[in-house]
Amino acid sequence: MNLLKNWKLKLRYGKLKTAFRHFTVIADGEIAEANPDFETTEGAAAFFSMHAWAADGDEATDMAVKIGRHVGFNATGRIYLYSTDPQEPPRDQPFAYGLNFHQYLRGDEHMEEGSPLPNGGIH
User: Fold this and answer.
1) What's the pTM?
2) Residue 1 falls within a domain, yes or no?
3) Domain extent for 38
4) Residue 23 and residue 46: Cα distance in Å, rounded?
5) Which residue ranges of the chain lie beneath pLDDT 50?
6) Would you say residue 90 lies in a domain?
7) How far is CA 35 from each of CA 20, 31, 107, rounded to the nearest angstrom?
8) What digits encode the pLDDT tens for the residues 106-122?
9) Is 64 part of any domain?
10) In a domain, 37, yes or no
C-alpha cells in the first residue's frame, strides 16, 4: 500500500520505475457480439476506448484489438493512439483498464421511428 501512496509523484520523479509507457487507445469499429457488461448492441457502430500500460504504441494497439475481440468488438476502422497521463499505477506486466464503448449511428443509418434523440434533439 505504501508504494501506491503518491505513485504519480514517485513515477514523475523517478522513484517508481517502469519499463512501460501509458497510452489511451480509441478504436472505431462494430459490435460483433452484444455484451451485457458494457450494454452494447450487436451490429452497432462504436468507438472502443481503453487505457494501457504497454512497452510501446504497437503493443498498446495490439492489446486494444485483442481485448476488443474478447468483449465482442471488431476494430474495422481507424485506431487512434495517444500518450496520456495514467489514472492507475504501472504493474510488472502490460495491462489495460478503463474499457469503454460509445455506440453511434453511421451517416447512412437512420433512427427507428419513435426513437428518442440524444440530448432531446438539442445540438
Assistant:
1) 0.81
2) no
3) 29-106
4) 20
5) 1, 114-115, 117, 119-123
6) yes
7) 30, 9, 24
8) 876 665 554 454 544 44
9) yes
10) yes
